[in-house]
């Protein structure tokens, strides 16, 4: 989501006549876009903010912006941030570059000549005013782009800070999303990923008056519309919540060739009591049935099939009160389901959340780490086995770029597996068939042909 927000900000700056530079020391405007989902992410922000202070002192006319979840929506107290970081000139809530753009315009810090040039480029691509003009260095080169479709979140999982910082759930109007996806495709983007905290709830908050015969009412409808866009080769979406994954959505994934069979659907824990205190709204058995439903509808990628659904999950270990036995239930669930990826995080108490207010953070750090590592080791073994079955098979990858260090091309399969290969030709942004010659848990290596 932050990558998407940063790209939108870069696009808006381009239209004011700004061009990108490589390092903050060379910049007239520096923006730090921030994540606070765990304390470790927040601590990183403070470190980076500290390193911007001397840059402001060296050149006081340099504009420093702070954006994203550290700023939060209207509920946060901006005075607190201003007092703590007086070298920051402007605060921007998540997905809202407005305050910086206004400041630059008001203070005449725009470059009219360059802005006119940018407007001409936008016209050549037939972009409207609100459309995304990719920054010059990305235009015609960017292969993957993210398009937020649901902003904010209203679910309020007991551990999660996002609803407090990104505000209530808002689906973007479908015509805005389709226009944005079209403009990206026109500028060479091959894959777009639709984003939402609960992306499978897309449209549920739109008024029925927004609906007409052509307007999508669900993520499935939206996928069908975006599928029509010429030039786009692949479409993905994340993150799904298990309770909102409809058969209609799975049908759309199955029927639309551009939509990849890759489902990101976090389970968070494999124990009903923990799930209930997390306020997730489903049981382990519901999740188990969902995985069966996904595999029945999209195919099972176990057993060396190059097609079939690939499923990724998120897990939190060491949630307050999680016993060794409850953790074992999560471990056993991963053994049983054999998913393609698991992002595993140690529980981190977040301000304002129900869990932080009600439940003591009582699993010691060393024990959280032990649980994290146990799941990580298990998962790499499982994925290693799943991937090993691809040896000797041919997979189709969309090539994203060239690895700077080793000079190999890299891309991803439809199932989101990273694959490297060597070749003299220019493959960036193209589909390639690669025969897999080596397979590990994190990547594949192959040969063209
Ligand atoms: N809305 C999305 C993304 C949430 S943030 C979703 O529900 O999947 C991404 C992941 O961070 C979550 O899935 C969760 O596993 C993890 N996470 C969120 N809050 C956390 C916390 N307080 N401590 C540790 N991990 C957390």
Give the helices and strands as they follow along the chain: HEHEHEHHEEHEHEHEHEHHEHEHHEEEEE
Bound molecules: S-adenosyl-L-homocysteine
For the report, how would you describe the main beta sheet? 5 strands, mixed, barrel
- The CATH architecture of the largest domain is 2-Layer Sandwich
What's the β-strand tally? 16
The secondary-structure class comes to alpha/beta
In percent, how much strand structure appears in the residues?
15-25%
Helical content class: 25-40%
Choose one word for the global shape.
globular
Spatial ordering of strands, largest sheet: 12-13-14-16-15
Write the SSE topology.
Layout: H1 2-15, E1 29-34, H2 39-58, E2 63-68, H3 78-84, E3 90-92, H4 98-106, H5 112-124, E4 144-148, E5 150-151, H6 162-166, E6 170-171, H7 174-186, E7 191-195, H8 219-227, E8 234-238, H9 247-255, E9 262-264, H10 272-278, H11 284-298, E10 310-317, H12 324-337, E11 341-346, H13 354-358, H14 365-388, E12 394-402, E13 409-413, E14 418-421, E15 431-439, E16 444-448
Parallel strand pairs: 1-2, 2-3, 4-7, 7-8, 9-10, 10-11, 14-16
Antiparallel strand pairs: 5-6, 12-13, 12-15, 13-14, 15-16
Helix pairs in contact: 8-9, 9-11, 12-14
The chain binds S-adenosyl-L-homocysteine.
